[in-house]
Amino acid sequence: MNSRRALAGLLAILPLAALLLLVPVLPPPERVPTHWSGRGPDGWSTGAGFLTVIFTTAVLAALAAAAAALLQRAIPQAWSRWMVAVTAAMGWGAVAVYLVTVWRVGLDGPDAVGDGWAIAGVLLGLLGGAVAYVVHGRVVPSVEEAVGLVPERSRVRPVRGRAVRPVERWSTSIESRTMAGIGWGVLFIFMAISAWMIASGESPWLIAVMVVTGVLAGGLALSWAAVVVTVDAGGLTIRSRILGLRIWRVLAGQVVGVTVAELDPMKWGGIGLRMLPDRTAYIVGAGGVGMVIYKRDGRRFALQVTQGDAAARAGARTLLQAAGQRLGETASG
Fold first, then answer.
1. Cα R_g (the chain), whole angstroms
2. What's the rounded Cα separation, in Å, for the pair 34 and 111?
3. CB count in 10 Å sphere of residue 215
4. Residues 299 and 278: beta-carbon distance below 8 Å
5. pLDDT score for 244
6. Quick one: pLDDT at residue 281?
C-alpha cells in the first residue's frame, strides 16, 4: 500500500474520532442557528438534530475514505486523490462547524451567532481537504522507468535532421452500440424519475439536481458512442461525433511507445470506456485489434480500431513518427 495514500486516507477518517472525543467535552447546546437572513439567524435546530447531521457527515466521509483506501488497486490515482480530498473536507468541515458553532453559541447565545462563523467552519474544512490532497500526492515513474515498460520494438525513437518529414494525418471512426445503449438508457431512467418527482410535487432544487445528474451521466456515455480518432503532429485526439467536442487527448510529447495488440475486454476492465489504476481502455463489443499507447506517466491507453489490423498499424506508425519528431526536437533544444 502506498504510504502517502494511506496517510491521506487516515486524515479523512480522523474527523470521526475527533468528534467522538470532542462531543463529551463540548456537548451541543439546546438550540443551534441553521439559517440566516440579514444580520441574524431566522432558523434554528435542536442540538440533537444538529449533532445528528454532523455525525452523519463525518461517518459518511470516513466510510468513503475507507472505500477509497480499499479500492486503491482498482481506481486511478487521480480519482483516489480527489475522493480522499473531498471526504477529508467533509469530515474536517463537520468538525470545524460543530466546534465553532458550539463555541459561539456558548459565548453569545443562539440568537447572536452570525453566518460568518458557519462559513469559517466550511473554509477550515476545505483547508483540511487541501492538506489531504497534497499529502496523497501522485507517484509518477521516471522517464527511464516508463520507457522500460514498453516492448523494445515499440519504443519512441528520436527523429532529427533529414529523417524529419511532415506527419500525414491519420483518422478513423469508431461506434459503440453498448455506450449508445447505456447513454440513452441512463437519460430515460433519470428523466422518468424527474417526471415522477415533478408530478409528486418534490422540491425544484431536488428535481434540478436529478435532471443535471442524468444529463451529465447520459451525455458522458453518448459522447463515446460515436467518435472520430485522429493522429497528427500534435498527437492523438478523440472527438465525439454526437456532441462535436474533443473528449480525449494524448500529446505526442507524452508518448514513449505505441504497439498494436488484440484487446481482450476481460484483461482491460470490460466493454466501453474503462479506467483502472495503471491503464485506460476504450473497447467496442467483444474486443479486437487496437493500439496501446504507453505514456510518460506510466499509464497505458488502449483504443480498439474497428477498421482492422492494417488501420491500427497505420495509426500506430503515425503516432510513433509524431512522438519521435517531438522527442527529437526536445533533445535538440
1. 26
2. 11
3. 14
4. yes
5. 86
6. 93
Q: What are phi and psi of 202, to 5 degrees?
A: -70, 170
Instruction: Look at residue 252 and tell me whether its pLDDT is greater than 90.
Output: yes
CA distance 278 to 76: 7
323 Cβ partners below 8 Å, 6+ apart?
A: 156, 235, 252, 253, 255, 256, 258
* Among candidate residues 126, 119, 140, the one with its CA nearest the CA of residue 85: 126
| Cβ-contact 23, 36 below 8 angstroms | no
Judge if pTM exceeds 0.85.
Answer: no
Q: Is residue 75 pLDDT above 80, yes or no?
A: no
CA distance 113 to 31: 11
Bridge partner residues of 125 (DSSP)? none
Indicate the pairing of strand 300-304 with strand 279-283. Answer: parallel
Reference 170, options 236, 245, 261; nearest CA is 236
Alpha carbon distance 51, 57 (integer Å): 10
Residue 11 predicted with pLDDT over 90: no
Q: Binning pLDDT at 50, 70 and 90, where does residue 332 land?
A: low
Q: Name residue 217's beta-bridge partners.
A: none
Of 209, 179, 302, 178, which is closest to residue 248 (Cα–Cα)? 302
Pinpoint the alpha helices (H) of the chain: 3-25, 47-70, 77-108, 115-136, 143-148, 177-199, 204-223, 265-268, 309-332
Mean predicted lDDT score pLDDT of the chain: 88
Contact 77, 277 (CB under 8 A): yes
Nearest to 96 by CA among 39, 14, 36: 14
Average pLDDT over residues 223-235: 94
Q: Which distant-in-sequence residues (6+ apart) come within 8 Å of 37 by Cβ?
A: none
Cα separation of the two ends of the chain: 39
CA distance linking residue 189 with residue 201, whole number of Å: 18
